[in-house]
Amino acid sequence: MKFFVDTADVKDIRELNELGLLDGVTTNPSLILKSGRNIAEVTKEICDIVEGPVSAEVAATEYAEMMKEAAVLSKIADNICIKVPLTLDGLKACRALTSEGRMVNVTLCFSANQALLAAKAGATFISPFIGRLDDMGVDGMELIAEIRHIYDNYGFDTEILAASIRSTEHVKRAAMIGADVATIPPATLKALVKHPLTDKGLEMFLSDWAKTGQKIG
Ligand code: E4P
């Protein structure tokens, strides 16, 4: 499973990249707002840090405008992945951009049929939003399982990018179902390493080691 980080915070991205844990980054207009940065500047900085796909989202809702914005965003770096919303215009832009050889992430997916359309439009990634479905009392993970089933039925190579992840449990369940990628908020990504028995065990080993009076090397 690939790990993308879901943020436009350059400090977090740099830290996680140095740990060797990052395969890519996703941003969206809300995350750009939160960063307080200019989209072109911050996206360029992110692309210079991370080698993998960096999703940058169009703000237009109409096909021709989306294509103009996609052209601007594409010029930022070679690893830009254009993010388009799951609308008819977004799907049309997806087909046009992937035909030109661009990576496209189709975002705001809340149903298996929407994911089927995105795959038919040649999407590189489909982003089902787990947490936002959970918020409505619907099991978001069930959507990941449905999409996995459909994509495997027909051999679509669109990658399932589990998005709107809110917990480490979400990451585990998405991995068990076979999502290709999870885009994870920085704090949740770092929390994956945590286990109380790891902390307790390490404490005991360090204490016993100190009692040996030895040094390695
Ligand atoms: C995905 O690419 C989106 O940026 C993101 O996962 C949305 O998550 P949220 O529902 O926590 O805003």
Automatic annotation (TrEMBL):
Q: Where is this chain's protein located in or outside the cell?
A: Cytoplasm
Catalysed reaction(s) here are: D-sedoheptulose 7-phosphate + D-glyceraldehyde 3-phosphate = D-erythrose 4-phosphate + beta-D-fructose 6-phosphate
Its GO CC terms are:
cytoplasm
Query: What keywords sit in the KW lines?
Result: Cytoplasm, Pentose shunt, Schiff base, Transferase
- EC class name: transferase
Source species: Aminobacter carboxidus
PANTHER family linked to this entry: FRUCTOSE-6-PHOSPHATE ALDOLASE 1-RELATED, TRANSALDOLASE
GO terms in the biological process aspect are: carbohydrate metabolic process; ketone catabolic process; pentose-phosphate shunt
**Function statement:** Transaldolase is important for the balance of metabolites in the pentose-phosphate pathway.
Entry annotated with the keyword Transferase:
yes
Q: What is this protein called?
A: Probable transaldolase
Q: Where's it mainly located?
A: cytoplasm
- Tell me which CDD domains the record gives: Transaldolase_FSA
Question: What pathway is this protein said to act in by its record?
Answer: Carbohydrate degradation; pentose phosphate pathway; D-glyceraldehyde 3-phosphate and beta-D-fructose 6-phosphate from D-ribose 5-phosphate and D-xylulose 5-phosphate (non-oxidative stage): step 2/3
| Assigned EC number | 2.2.1.2
Q: Where is the active site?
A: 83
Q: A single GO molecular function, which one?
A: aldehyde-lyase activity
Q: Which PROSITE patterns match?
A: TRANSALDOLASE_1, TRANSALDOLASE_2
The region annotated as signal peptide is none
Family statement: Belongs to the transaldolase family. Type 3B subfamily.
